[in-house]
Amino acid sequence: MRENIEKTIVSTEEIQKTVARLGQELQTDYQGKVPIFICILKGAVLFMTDLIRAYDAPAEIEFMDVSSYGDALESSGEVRILKDLDIPVKGRDLVIVEDIIDTGRTLEALIKLLQTREAASIKICSFLNKPARRLINVHVDYTGVTVPDEFLVGYGLDYKNQYRNLPFVGVLKPEVYEQN
Ligand SMILES: O=P(O)(O)OC[C@H]1O[C@H](OP(=O)(O)OP(=O)(O)O)[C@H](O)[C@@H]1O
Ligand code: HPA
Ligand SMILES: [Mg+2]
What we know:
Layout: E1 5-10, H1 12-29, E2 36-41, H2 45-54, E3 60-67, E4 80-83, E5 93-101, H3 105-115, E6 121-129, E7 142-146, E8 152-153, E9 169-172, H4 174-178
Parallel strand pairs: 2-3, 2-5, 5-6, 6-7
Antiparallel strand pairs: 1-9, 3-4, 8-9
Helix pairs in contact: 1-2
C-alpha cells in the first residue's frame, strides 16, 4: 500500500496536532452544551474517532452515510442519502464531521436536509479543506488543514474504497490510476 504513495501531504504527527487543536476549539465553543457529532460515512470515520477523544466533555455521536463519488475521482454531482440519522435533532446543536470538503456538494445536500429538522445550530468541522475545487460556497466553521488541488488518500480518504487505513494523507503515484 505505502509503495503506491508518491508524497505525503499531512503526516501522522500533523494529524495528531490538528485533531488536538480542533478538539480544544470545539470544547471551548460548546461549553455547557451537549452537541451531537455527526460522522459522515465512510470517509470521516477515522477523524471522528480521534476528534471525539480530543473533545473532553459531554457529547453524543451519530452517523450518516451520504455518497457522491462512488469509485470515481470526480464528484458525480448527485448526492444520495444511504443512511439517515436514527434520532430527531430538533433543538440540538449539530457538528457535521467530514474528512474533506471538495466541491461542497455533499455538504450542501446535508445542510439542506438537516435545516428542515429545526436543529438549534449546525456547524461544520472538516479535517481537510480543498477550496480550489469548490463549486458551492459552503462555510466551514472548523478546518483542520487546507490542501492543494490533488486527489488524496489516507486517514479515511479512499481510492476505490482502499487506502482509508493509511495513518497519513498522501497522493498516489500516477501509475496506480493508469493500471485501472
Ligand atoms: O465536497 P464534495 O465534492 O462533495 O466531496 C467531499 C465528500 O466526498 C467524499 O465522500 P464520498 O462520497 O466519496 O464517500 P465516502 O466518504 O464513503 O468515501 C468525502 O468523504 C466527503 O464526504
Ligand atoms: O481528494 C479526495 N480523495 C478521496 N476522496 C475524495 N472525496 C473528495 N475529495 C477527495
Ligand atoms: Mg470517498
